[in-house]
Amino acid sequence: MKNIKPLVILNETILPGEKRTIYMEIAKLHTATKLKIPVIIERAKLDGPTVLFSAGIHGDEINGVEIVRSIIVQTINKPLRGTIICIPVINIFSFVNKSREFPDGRDLNRVFPGSKKGSLASQFAYHLIKDIIPHIDYAVDFHAGGASRFNAAQIRIAPHNEELKKLADVFSAPFTLYSKNIAGTFRNACEKRNVKMLLFEGGKSLDINDEIAEQGVNGAKRLLAYLNMLSPNQKLTNETDPSIYISRSSWVRAKRSGLFHDYNKIGCYVKKGFVLGTITDPFGKFEQKVKAPNDGYIINANHAPIVYQGDAIYHISNELGHHDQERSENQI
Ligand SMILES: [Zn+2]
To answer: CA Rg, the chain, in Å?
Structure first.
């Protein structure tokens, strides 16, 4: 019964019924400018679990930031019971630079649980795990596809975890992908600390897509309703289709370099041989069709106007088994 008591987090005490924004400070910019990470906490008077909504582990994944911002603006983070903690921009250093990596070139999502005296990214991870995560029961971490790769809205969970599957059912993103936890990720560190985390992927980097953002917000509301934490002032959207579970998928790669024309079948089910797009040269000499290698759902499409031979251009589900199986986030 965590929440009847005052919550002591980052040296501040928050009573039931209180809301507070706390600013985490881990390091300054090279300009000596302070960088603060706002941690927005809302507590109900009634006892209940603690839920974290976070985004921006990768500083260029703006769509996730927009989802957590929307959750705050729509006061979805004001719980009926328990506590909701929102961190819209975890990796504020990369967000300032609009880059995926830390200024030192490290990927924050590969250095968890971090260390007190490690690299800046590692220190960041360490403080997040030490100061925030011990308070959390459930979490949704919002991401977007790397670079120009646009993800259909999807939840990613480790296989063989019935509790997470139940939460993914509740969230009801259009797709749920089974993907193993990768060492060094926030998700892996959370699971080891018994935090039930859903990883949301949707849209692409340096982009805001309203439809994807809405799917993220609606899923968050459904999760809160399931946990009996959604304020009665909030309305749930009408019934959604059950999430489509995908356990096998593979990347379609460009067979040639050239200009890439995507035919926008993201989220659709296509049959083997369906033309997903074309690759052309800039001079009107060749045009090559990119065909679906098997029946499946298109869960990611590359929106780059120019591709090189071997670039991953489509991510397609493949329930029948395929050798080139790559399922982890941005492992392209
Ligand atoms: Zn990410």
So the answer is: 20
